[in-house]
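= Protein in question =
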Amino acid sequence: MIYMDRLILGDGENCIFSSDSQETGLNNNILVIGTSGCGKTVSILEPRILETFNKSLIATVTKRRIVKKYSMVMRKRGYNVWDLNFVHPGKGNCGYDPLMHIGSYNDITFLARSIVLANPQKAQSSADPYWDDGATSLLSAEIAYILMTKDNPTFADVLAFHNRLTFEDGGGVIVTNYDGEFDYLAEKDPSCFAVSCWKSFKQLPVRTAGCVYSALNTTIDSIFTPELKKMFRIKEMVDLEKLASEKTVLFITTNPVNSSLNGFISTFYGTVFKDLFEFAEDQADGKLPVPVDVLADDFATGCPINMFEQYVSIFREKGLSVTALIQSESQLRSLYGSEKATTIINNCDTIVFLGSMDLETGRSISVRANRPLEDVLYMPIGSEIIFRRGMKPIFTKRYDIFQNEMYKKVTAAYEKHVEEEMSRC
């Protein structure tokens, strides 16, 4: 039997849609809005995994139960199953090292900038971008140096190199312990990328350089925890080209109460979208060989993803889509800023509203649905509104996955497996 990937977004046949963009004329970007505990995961995210038979998936989850439960299902469907565990890297079966995804000088700059900007306050900050540019130059120089001089480098080498950096005021000029190394590179190739970035940092006034260095230290220390550093030593690494060429599901485990992971995860997603976009560009038809759906739980509780508002507008033509689960529109705006958040919302052809007491969200949904504000704010628990471009709003109830026969079988098989595992302990 041939199964088709479907989008089950609510209760009833009129809430089940094709995921074939050529058939519907719509992109598959979905914005799911609902307060904490309203059922976004169980009524949207889990049905998406359950109904995926042909596309590749990247699914961010906070519950290990979902990884264990659906890994069994996806393997039976012929999928490669990768478990990228950001909370406990050693318990997963693959790792992620940013250096593995660098193929050009532009990639170095992109990675450095993604790390520098991996801060939820950046979107609303009025600080001069000059500071971020300086930090990006310094980190780019360090990354480029390690790539040029180290055999089989990992990002742990970059962090160690950065931690050994010291500098002082040499009469209004920055003097560092690494000047000799970069001078040697400059003698061999004055136009060397690492040297160019290093010079950009060295040209800063001493006090400014000190501030840039301190800010970068704070960012790096907050992102690269001891647990994450273990991930750079895992032998099996995420291969995004393989994910886009063979049916693959990549589960990403994060922790909703551990904000230290947010910066690294946003950097990871920035790499994912950039690499998949570039891989699609290299194909004869400009599309990924296997379409990739990204299911991003708690999308707006972390850090902004570098250039996401630009990538989301061209996902459809590349065979990409994202389902972003957020608590409110104001949450999204606080993370990305008003203009970027509006761009993200406008590039989602589907919006599912599961209820919220946020006034900004309520007013927006009220206008979209042409309903009084109080009807939106006091919408009964379990109700939802589905908006699809080109259609009138659908007022319905959230999908009850517990009545799905396939889900019942999957759950029974998982519970049996758990019992067998416990009996062996």
